[in-house]
Amino acid sequence: MKTKIKIFISILSSIIVLVLGVAIGSVYVEPLKILTIIFGKILSQPISADLNENLISIIWDIRLPRVLAAFLVGGALAASGTVMQSILKNPLASSYTLGVSSGASVGVGLVLITGFSIPVLGNFTLPLIGLLSGLVTVYLVITITAQIDRNMGNTTIILFGMIFSLFINAVTTLIMALSRETLPRLIYWQMGSFALKSWLDVKILAVIFVGCYLILIRYTNELDIMTFGEEQALAIGVEVKKVKWILLILSAALTGSAVAFTGVIGFIDLIAPHVVRKIFGSSHKLVVPISILFGGTFMVACDLVARILVSNSELPVGAVTALIGAPFFAYVYFKNRKVR
Length: 340
Description:
- With 340 residues, the protein is mainly alpha-helical.
- The protein contains 14 helices and no strands.
- The chain has a single domain (64-339), classed as ABC transporter involved in vitamin B12 uptake, BtuC (Orthogonal Bundle).
- Helices cover 75% and strands 0% of the residues.
- Helix 3 (53-88) crosses helix 13 (284-308) and helix 8 (199-216) packs antiparallel against helix 11 (240-262).
- The longest helix is centred in the N-terminal third of the chain and has 36 residues, at 53-88.
């Protein structure tokens, strides 16, 4: 199948899932009505009298921000996973398996408990703290792993990342136990959810996401070159150390902002790059944007399942992604061992 056809099918599938994400809920809304409401709001035109205010509010104020937030978070995590797997030349590397998500969650948890806010940044405080916490975690994991295993073997990186993640999760649990007043809020946030997401959340996520993507897309050639090894990249003229840290910072920014707004949601960043590389090949000019599209679409689908699987209740979306991602992780791990 030609690449253009694959891209067209991917975009069409994404649009269908996004529409279903907005349409399906306690009240089903026809796609045509959804489009009427969206275009009416965007163009500031009067909306048909057949659509009552409650329905308009459900679509515009509740479901649409939720679906867009899910898409942006899924896309951000997928982009982060793509970069980490390429930089570390490790098919199991991701912000979740390396403990970046857990590290970011500690920083964000402390902000939620203390109510800390940077006056100039306001609502950007959470994603900034998430970014910094995630970056510190990446640095610690890579630095300590290098001391343990100079060859930076796949198994060593993954095992230490997971051990570090367990340690960070223990710290988070301790923080939660010592802050009983904010405990319900912390538990709800840590489970991962897109409920009650507003247009402000979507705008902040979009600003961070678009900014990181515009920088990331400039390094696709370097990512392609670095997959052949650092020595070859240096010989060609790539400033490997500088590029690696720029890309790691971008990955931490994407993961940290996602964790800040929705809690810890794992395995999207592991699954998306694998699936996309299987279908579209290894060129990062295509892998990065299609991974974002796949990750965003997959996240919206998982959130939809979390909403409708149990009647009159909502499952944590992190649990849904883990149910799919954990077997996928095991498959990739044992497949690679078998190849050796």
